[in-house]
């Protein structure tokens, strides 16, 4: 689970494109905190800190305690925008979270057990169908990732979401089917070899 990280912010009185550009010229990133039954709150955050946090990974599954001019707000990032040319952050959206609430997040899939997989040992290829899975989780227990264990999988086996051990309280948002996370397939070379060694059909 991600630890709660601290952020310092200052409130912004002005909003709009012109105000956002002025914030960026001051070495800050414009942002907004919304939700929780309260009006949106425009804030400004340190540019270098936000850039480091976004590129460190797990940004959108991390809870932040944001100090806005001395008032503390607990929130989670919902979205961020990057400059299309220079790839640095230009805006961030946060959503307020309350104790006991749930949030919907995209959680990364980490594959484990490749070295023990019968299929991988025989030269099979890992086909990762979903790099992330959308889950509804308790706001105070957001996982950094979920593990997909392939240690018992052979060639042509598939792993579905029902076979993944999810953290307590976590549920997939897709509930109408047991969707596939990954599969182990025969590598192209194995398929070619199988075709070459197949016995020809008897002549008519």
Walk me through this protein's architecture.
This protein is of the alpha+beta class and 204 residues long. A hairpin with a 2-residue loop joins β4 (64-68) and β5. It has 2 domains: 5-98, Ribosomal Protein L25, Chain P, CATH 2.40.240.10; 103-194, Ribosomal protein L25, C-terminal domain (RNA Polymerase Alpha Subunit, Chain A, domain 2), CATH 2.170.120.20. The mean pLDDT is 91. 16% of the residues lie in helices and 43% in strands. Strands 1-3-2-6-5-4 form a 6-stranded mixed barrel. Strands 10-7-9-12 form a 4-stranded mixed β-sheet, with no helix packed on it. The protein has helices at residues 17-25, 47-56, 118-121, 188-197; strands spanning 5-11, 28-35, 38-46, 64-68, 71-82, 89-96, 102-112, 125-128, 132-138, 145-149, 158-160, 171-172, 180-185. This is one of the proteins that binds to the 5S RNA in the ribosome where it forms part of the central protuberance. Belongs to the bacterial ribosomal protein bL25 family. CTC subfamily. Part of the 50S ribosomal subunit; part of the 5S rRNA/L5/L18/L25 subcomplex. Contacts the 5S rRNA. Binds to the 5S rRNA independently of L5 and L18. Keywords: Ribonucleoprotein, Ribosomal protein, RNA-binding, rRNA-binding. One of its GO terms (cellular component) is cytosolic large ribosomal subunit.
């Amino acid at each position: 689970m991600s630890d709660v990280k601290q952020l310092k912010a200052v409130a912004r009185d002005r909003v709009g494109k012109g105000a956002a550009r002025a914030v960026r010229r001051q070495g800050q990133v414009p942002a907004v905190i919304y939700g929780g039954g309260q009006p949106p709150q425009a804030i400004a955050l340190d540019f270098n800190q936000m850039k480091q946090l976004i590129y460190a990974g797990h940004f959108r599954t991390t809870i932040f305690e944001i100090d806005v001019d001395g008032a503390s707000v607990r929130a989670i990032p919902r979205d961020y925008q990057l400059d299309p040319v220079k790839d640095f952050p230009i805006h961030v959206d946060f959503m307020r979270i309350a104790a006991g609430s749930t949030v919907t997040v995209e959680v990364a899939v980490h594959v484990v057990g490749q070295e023990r997989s019968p299929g991988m040992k025989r030269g099979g290829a890992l086909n990762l169908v979903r790099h992330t899975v959308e889950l509804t989780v308790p706001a105070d227990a957001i996982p950094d990732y979920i593990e997909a264990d392939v240690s018992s999988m052979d060639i042509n086996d598939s792993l579905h979401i029902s076979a993944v051990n999810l953290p307590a309280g976590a549920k997939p948002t897709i509930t109408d089917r047991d969707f596939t996370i990954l599969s182990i397939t025969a590598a192209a070379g194995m398929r070619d070899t199988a075709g070459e060694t197949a016995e020809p059909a008897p002549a008519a």
